[in-house]
Amino acid sequence: MFMGEYQHSLDEKGRVTVPAKFRESLGQRCVVTRGLDQCLFIYPESEWRAVEEKLKALPMTQRDARAFTRFFFSGATDVELDKQGRIMIPASLREYARLVKDVVVIGVSTRVEIWAKEIWEAYVQEAEASFEAIAEKIVDLGI
Length: 143
Fold this sequence. Notes:
Number of domains: 1
Radius of gyration: 16 Å
Shape: globular
CATH class: Alpha Beta
Helix content: 40-55%
Structural class: alpha+beta
């Protein structure tokens, strides 16, 4: 399981260091794709296969299903962690997520997300204002 928030920077070649706590669970090879809310999603290969199966089950007769599947898979690419624990983020994905220098890498249960620092900070500020109301609607944490 992935959890936590880590501050990193893209290097001049478009690489980002994956937090050490995430490396073993991600494995040597993983998949990075466009995520929601203008971030990138990174999946271990096993989790990617599970997501792929769910998306393949969507009815291709529905326009929204086709559109989402196209968007999600067309942005996906296999990446490999180098010896320093970095992955290369393709230029098209850096552009989509507006990754320039400072990034935030977060763990979200079954996936890792990479955010441009300023977009993450704006998202957190907005989400904090409604966190309790959202929780009441969708989750019973038992706490």
